[in-house]
Amino acid sequence: PYCAEDGTYIPKKFYRAATAHIMPKNLFPSVASHPMNYLILGAGCCHDKTHRIDTFSKMKVFPIAIEHFYQFEKEIKENHKYLTLFKEAIKNYKS
Questions:
Q1: Residue 40 — φ and ψ, nearest 5°?
Q2: pLDDT of 2-43, one tens digit each?
Q3: Any residues with CB less than 8 A from the CB of 31 and at least 6 apart, and which?
Q4: Are 74 and 36 in contact (CB under 8 A)?
Q5: Is the dihedral of CA 63, 77, 28, 31 positive or negative?
Q6: Deepest in the core among 42, 63, 76, 91, taking most CB within 10 A?
């Protein structure tokens, strides 16, 4: 696989680390394993950029994250500041 953000090849030993969750698993266990709650991003190049909404919302893959999010949003049971910030970033996103 390749990083969805910058196209960097992801070696087999890093496949597992390439799964970047849109809603962090530790904060949102209700959707932790939802099949749409992830993007494939290189562990060494882009994965860490998703940990903060201010950087995540500036990535090329953010529109894909938004599409995925809408597919599982109603299944989120937790109320956390990260969710509020993510929704604000969607409102402020300019495609």
A1: -95, 110
A2: 999 999 999 999 998 999 999 999 999 999 999 999 999 998
A3: 23, 37, 72, 75, 76
A4: no
A5: negative
A6: 42
Cα-based distances in Å from 74 to 2, 30, 43, 66, 92: 30, 10, 29, 13, 21
Instruction: Supply the DSSP string of the chain, one letter for each residue.
Output: -B-TTT--B--GGGTGGGEE-SS-TTT-GGGTT-TTS-EE--TTTTGGGGGSHHHHTTSTTHHHHHHHHHHHGGG-----HHHHHHHHHHHH---
Q: What is the pTM of this model?
A: 0.92
CB 56 within 8 A of CB 31: no
Kindly report the number of other CB atoms within 10 A of residue 38's CB atom: 19
